Amino acid sequence: MDTFIQLTLSGLSNGMVYALVAVGFVVVFKASDVINFAQGEFLMFGAYLCFAFIAQFGLPWSLSVVLAVAGCAGLGLLVERLVLRPLIGEPVISMIMATIGLSSVMKALVNGIWGPRPRAFPSFLPEGNIEIGGAVLGLDRVLVVVVAGLLLFVLQWFFKTTREGIAMRAIADDNQAALSMGISIRRVLAVAWALAAVTAALGGMMLANMVGVGQEVSHVGLRVFPVVILGGLDSIPGAIVGGAIIGLLEQYTGGYIGHGLNMIVPFLVLILVLMIRPYGLFGKRIIERV
Amino acid sequence: MRSGVFFEKYSEEMALRPYPLQRMRLGLFALAVVIFPFIASPYWLSLANQVAIATVGALGLNLLVGYTGQISLGQGAFLAIGAYGSGLLTLRMDLPFWLSIPIAGLITAAAGLIIGLPSLRLKGLYLAIATLAAQQIVEWVITHWTWLTGGTEALVIPSPKLFGFRLDRDFNFYWFGVATAALAALFVANLMRSRVGRSFVAIRDQDIAAGALGVNVFRTKLVAFATSSFLVGITGALIAHYRTIITWERFTLDTSITYLAMIIVGGLGTINGSFFGATLIVLLPALINSVGQSLQTTVPAAARILPFVQQGAFGLIIILFLVLEPEGLAKLWRNIKDQFKVWPFSY
Question: Residue B316 and residue A105: Cβ atoms within 8 Å?
Fold first, then answer.
């Protein structure tokens, strides 16, 4: 029973990190129907920026976090302006390859500046453990769950009530109708990319707190695909539920079956979902299909 | 200057290269290919072999992505199935490699049918993600099916022999590699002129319209997956026999991305583009490497950042082509030809 609780707790906390990363996908997809294959690299970039501000410039961590988030937002804007905007209206393959190319460039930049070796992250989250029902959970993980929950709540509010958020949904729904209503697609897309970069920066820093800064941080970008597909590519609650389910599934298969099966189960789920319910648990039902 | 097209016989119209100029260019290219190994250094010869192998793979991927419009991130998985298939056939069953390569192609085609199944329901982005998942699953199977594939250990296979010649040297392998690439190009060129090939393109352009015109969309998509995987499986087998050592690291998602980059940079849905793209993407790291080596004496830091420059250049070249010339090198080549054709007028 103890193992079960332990697995559940770590599964859920992993799931919240996944959800945090997945939201970055969702925001961009909601606004522009583009899947950002460089999301993992955005995470890595955010983590390294924060690392640089704390460890190399010696700034206090609160200021570093703000600066890293701002830096990532700037990068998001830059990327949207230079790479994605010229490609508006191009086929899906171009969008996919553009973000893949981007991920390669960002990896090269990070490696060139900070070197390929993973580094210890100057941890700023509180250390220590708490016990829940006989199982131990690190305080940093609890904090991650809280921050992720808060952020997802804010984003949900943003999409439901603010002007920009509604404009974003309008554009995702119908480009031309949105344009004729006086919505600037460029502006909204820029906001979406900045927002995605900001969530990625926050997620990257949280992740770096737990595993250190290195290339591993960017691998999470790929591992999150099952989460977004399961939850629905355009749904923020879907990201949370999907993250929790995938996180739990990974922990249970890892804990009870083993053989490294936990690496692959999310992808089996992904294919299953795509075959049965391609729009996921909470996604809009209109998807491109044959 | 050519002023018009005047065919007098049907055979002329049916020819793959109807114009004398085209035949001349092809002849010159063939001549260069034949002379090349006698004057090239071993280093360049090995690069040429890699280009020949990559061309077959790019042709296969282009068949699926460029001509049929089905985005696949599973190229690495197909290559792996071909490589391990052919390698294990020669190693465990003592088949000669000229037999094991086509069998590996067939095995990969069967796998392609299975991995292509989601394409019956999905397209675009969703298909890309499904093939991404297939790639991860195949990778996992290969590293965990230890008694068959040796898991994460490298699999060493005997060097191939053909007509008594050992193909363990780059010079000997070159002829085999180039012949395979030429056959593959001929195959794709002829396939795309056939009814099946035309229906591939119809599905890419508008699947619903293609269905309305009597193309069996489901079957054609599966045929595209199978044919493409056949070529890619052969590529994997070629890689296995060229290296005589198979490791799973050669067939990761990065490999899929490299091949996608080849056809994007070369030109989607073109045959010469597959060759141009394969050449550029294979040579790019080598070129950067040689520039870095020569800079090393003046800039000592060059060697340290070299791998990152290669990685960055790879990404940058994809983005630049997508933004500036989405139709790739094949379009640039066509522009050059047009320039000569209409000279001295501007258009």
Answer: yes
